[in-house]
Amino acid sequence: MMSPKMLERALSLSARRGAQVTDEGDDDNDGDESKTKKHMSLALRATNYLTRVGYLWPCLVLCLILLLVSSLIIHSRNFVCISSASDPVTRMRFFGYEEPETDFGSLGVPWCRSKHGKTVEWTSKDLLSALEEFVPIYETRPIKNNMYGMGFDHSFGLWFIARWLKPDLMIESGAFKGHSTWVLRQAMPDKPIVSLSPRHPEKYLKKGPAYVDENCTYFAGKDFVDFGSLDWGRVMKKHGIKDMSRVLIFFDDHQNELKRLKQALKAGFRHLVFEDNYDTGTGDHYSFRQICDQFYIRGGGHSCFKDSDEARMRARRKKFWDKAVDINELCGPGEAWWGVRGQMRDDFNHSNKAITYTDHFQNSRFVESVLDVYWELPPVAGPSLTHQTRYDPARALTPIVEDGRLMNRDTFLLYHMSTALQFVTRWISDWLAYCLKGLVPVSVPSTFDSYGFNKT
Fold it and tell me: Which of 12, 24, 346, 403 could bond to 256 as cystine, CB 3.0-4.6 Å?
């Protein structure tokens, strides 16, 4: 029989051993629980987390993420292809220009004054209606890729004027492959044409498409005679023309337009069309647009000061438009900006003559004294539709077609597809001008209309 003291010591020892066993058991349980947590699924963890914090905030975060993704998808077209080859409108919007198409004419569009302040008879509705008619005609052109020749816009302008005037005889100086001859023929199917060109269009048939008209008298190749040297009295007699207002002249010969104007006045012609009417600082000959670029004319005149508003605007636009002209390109020695850096160019830039601003000013006054009407055809469409990146619209009028809503869908798509390539290469490069003179002695010029067509 154990004594009370021995029994007490035994019970105390047993209690301590039990406590150690319990602690070890707890440690083992903790280890197992830790292993269980490590292998717990993501879904279970998310459920536990949501149980503790609630569902409101995670739902809000998820909605915000979905909203952001949706917004990026919807507006993705405004953020892609930001490079030198991308759409300039997209690029300008990307860099903070909200409505780049609204800056047409922001650098000025000099408008030749007429002595009577007359305007043309047609309206924008007439142009738009004629444009829809011209699209399917243009689709049938024999020369699909008229590189270095007229594109869609000037073809439309020439066709529109010829059809509006309905002349009895059409004369062209500079035929190239014959595209302009074809355009005139589409406007007036039964009227005779006289064509002057150093090289006969038939010569181009050996290398590709060209157009030779059966009802056309050619002064071309070996028979070439320059417009200023031809005996026009004899030509008019041959075609039975007694009223010179029934004749339309089309110049696409890259000659000094002031020279051609004086030659036309001398011959007694009334209606003239100039295709290559280049803007100031560009082109290979002196043009109506250059002549009428004067300080006293709205939209005309320039400053060669390199810290001017114009200089900053031109430098900024140079980043977006390949053919934009900055102040360094516009201004020549002595801050001469008129013509091309103070020069009056002629004959495909083979003949250049430096002129003073006084000479340039007097040329403008002379042109103004013989003009009855001056008008420029706007670009047919803006860069958001044509995707051209070459020519800066800041020196052009607002386009005829500002967006696809102005034409029916099928017609616009046809027009867009058929001319996309030519728009890329031939948009707002120069202008076209049309003129009228009365039957009076050479020394007394009478009324003289000039309609300029913005080449696009």
Answer: 346
- Least Cα distance to 150 among 170, 129, 172 occurs for 172
Distance between CA atoms of residues 411 and 417, nearest Å: 10
**CA angle at 424 for the pair 386 and 89, rounded to the nearest 5°:** 50
Q: Could you tell me which of 114, 387, 426 has the C-alpha nearest to residue 275?
A: 426
What does residue 370 show for φ and ψ, rounded to 5 degrees? -115, -5
Residue the block writes with tokens 């869609």: 152
| Bridge pairing between strands 169-173 and 193-197 | parallel
User: What kind and span of H or E run contains 196?
Assistant: strand 193-197
- Please give the biggest Cα pair distance in the chain: 161
SS3 129: helix
pLDDT value at position 438?
Answer: 31
Instruction: Give the integer Cα–Cα distance in Å for 75 and 120.
Output: 43
Cβ–Cβ contacts within 10 Å for residue 194, how many?
21
Q: What is the predicted pLDDT for the residue at 114?
A: 84
Question: If residue 8 lies in a helix (H) or strand (E), which one and from where to where?
Answer: helix 4-38
Nearest alpha carbon to residue 255 among 223, 282, 287: 287
pTM value is 0.73
**406-430, pLDDT tens digit by residue?**
445 445 444 443 443 333 233 333 5
**Residue 192 phi/psi, 5° resolution?**
-70, 155
8 Å CB contact between 206 and 198 = no
Cβ atoms of 279 and 292 closer than 8 Å = no
Distances from the Cα of 189 to the Cα of 93, 182, 416, angstroms: 46, 10, 26
pLDDT band at 227 (very low <50, low <70, confident <90, very high): very high
Q: Which of 259, 281, 206 is nearest to 367 (CA)?
A: 259
Instruction: Specify the pLDDT at position 8.
Output: 54
DSSP state of 104: T
Q: Which amino acid is at 340?
A: V
Give residue-wise pLDDT tens across range 118-177.
Answer: 888 889 999 999 999 999 999 999 999 998 899 899 999 999 999 999 999 999 999 999
